[in-house]
Amino acid sequence: MGLSTHVLDTMHGCPAAGMKVELFSTEINDGNDGDKATLIKSLVLNHDGRTDAPLFDNASLKVGTYRLTFDVAAYFKARGVELPEPNFLNRVSLDFGVAHVDQHYHVPLLVSPWSYSTYRGS
């Protein structure tokens, strides 16, 4: 199955349909230059808070480090939620590693305007 994601809006108790997500490959740099991130895909989640297809299938997934960035503030503003300026959460970025390309990596996000959690799902 490769790599997939799913976002649940815990404020409204529903999938985060319409949230913008970006997938990057990353290179960890221990020096002062910071990490390097290369955009791979930009997409919008469907009615179920998921992508229409896996972000990567097993044949395309490579060992390495990645980042998923979720546009949380824009999503909640579009839902009519009044957010303070600046927002407590603007974008949520999750950095993770893929060590075994023969396994499925599912990266779910549970999010509200004030909190989030994630885990390696199945």
What is the helix/strand order? EEEEEHEEE
C-alpha end-to-end distance:
10 Å
Average pLDDT confidence is: 94
Number of helices: 1
Low-confidence stretches: none
Largest sheet: 4 strands, mixed
How much of the sequence lies in strands comes to 35-45%
How does this structure look, described?
By secondary structure, this protein is mainly beta. It has 1 helix and 8 strands. The protein has a 4-stranded mixed sheet with strand order 2-1-7-8, with no helix packed on it. The protein has a 4-stranded antiparallel sheet with strand order 4-3-5-6, with helices on one face. The longest helix is centred in the middle third of the chain and has 7 residues. The protein starts with a strand and ends with a strand.
